[in-house]
Specification:
With about 130 residues, this protein is α+β, with helices and mostly antiparallel strands. The protein contains two helices and six strands; from the N terminus they run βββαβαββ.
Amino acid sequence: MSDLNPVKTDRAPGAIGPYSQAMSVDGWVFCSGQIPIDPATGELVGGDIGVQTDQVLKNLAAVLEAAGASLARVVKTTVFLSDMGDFVSMNEVYAEHFGDHRPARAAVAVKTLPKNVDVEIEAVAKIS
């Protein structure tokens, strides 16, 4: 298993369970879901779904960068929402972060997310 490398950065929240922020293998990085925690304070970010999505994607970008990738190298994301009614607002912020890059994506509503947040996003990316 020496080809499996855990990814860790202080620029994103640490794992809140028995998992890594991400794992890299064979030129790919598989990122665990990020939630809207400010890594500087360890506190959840308040505000609407747009504010929360912005923090989630900043956290995700930090993990990707620690692995040698970026949002521009993401091939697939999964977005988990506590309420599908937040989809349009989440999508606007998501589009701002990804620009013209359009990775494959699934978006699903779930009953509850960790720490009762409204959004969580995971990603798979090709390392540069």
